[in-house]
Amino acid sequence: KAGVTQTPRYLIKTRGQQVTLSCSPISGHRSVSWYQQTPGQGLQFLFEYFSETQRNKGNFPGRFSGRQFSNSRSEMNVSTLELGDSALYLCASSFFPGGPANTGELFFGEGSRLTVL
Amino acid sequence: KNEVEQSPQNLTAQEGEFITINCSYSVGISALHWLQQHPGGGIVSLFMLSSGKKKHGRLIATINIQEKHSSLHITASHPRDSAVYICAVGGVMDAGGTSYGKLTFGQGTILTVHP
After folding, report:
1. Do A108 and B102 lie within an 8 Å CB cutoff?
2. Which of B100, B104, B105 should be substituted to probe chain A, the one whose Cβ sees the most A Cβ atoms within 10 Å?
């Protein structure tokens, strides 16, 4: 069974540019969550999606946005990049909430490492 | 004060030692996760707890809901256990059920096990 796939794995951008990151969840998983990891702030929650709807949002500026498609794949976008956006962006998938198969376990991708110059 | 506090921040052990990492939280939760992160970034979920105790191989996780405290124990530690261990709390209930993705993370414990 394929795991959570994130692309690209590494990317370099310059300030002011925008970036789109992709996350393909494990087959059958309909919830996708995104996280940012930096040396200074550690891991922080960005968004959670289920059935193409954003269920929860973390405390990030509007430059950070996301969406989920009908096949459960998700993308996140950061516009007008700042140096402080340099981070490892992780996504995780899980079974749909509320169902008997929902053990609460999260399955993480390897992450997309963004460097902003 | 952080909502999720882990201790210790750094831990060095000799192979075979019994290891304990602690996590205290100040928010109401319905789920607590223990995660493992190796160099390079990938995160693996070790346990998700809402009460009691779970065991998987040499790993044991416990949670005390009343005291808002959880511990991760590693018995017979091995150099391959060297990693960052992260406690995360969350679990948001709404009309759709419980979603587990909205998490608040501890700062992590860096574990190094020497042969």
Report:
1. no
2. B100
Contact A37/B91, CB-based, under 8 Å? Answer: no
Give me the mean pLDDT over the A75-95 stretch. 95
Cβ atoms of A106 and B33 closer than 8 Å: yes
pLDDT band at A102 (very low <50, low <70, confident <90, very high): low
Give the amino acid at B32.
L
Contact A113, B41 (CB under 8 A): yes
How far is Cα B64 from Cα B37, in angstroms, rounded to an integer?
24
Within 8 A of A90 by CB-CB distance, chain B residues are 41, 43
Task: Kindly determine whether residue B105 and residue A104, on different chains, have CB atoms separated by under 8 Å.
Answer: no
Closest CA to B32 of B4, B66, B7: B4
Residue of B nearest to A42 (CA): B107
How many Å apart are CA A20 and CA A8, to the nearest integer? 9
- Estimate to the nearest angstrom the gap between the alpha carbon of B71 and the chain centroid: 7
Q: What does DSSP say about strands A107-108 and A87-94: parallel, antiparallel, or unpaired?
A: antiparallel
Q: Counting one residue from A and one from B, how many pairs have CB atoms under 8 Å apart?
A: 90
Q: SS3 breakdown of chain B: % helix, strand, coil, rounded to 5?
A: 5, 65, 35
B1 confidence band (pLDDT: 50, 70, 90) = low
What pLDDT shows up at residue B93?
65
Q: What is the mean pLDDT of residues B15-43?
A: 90
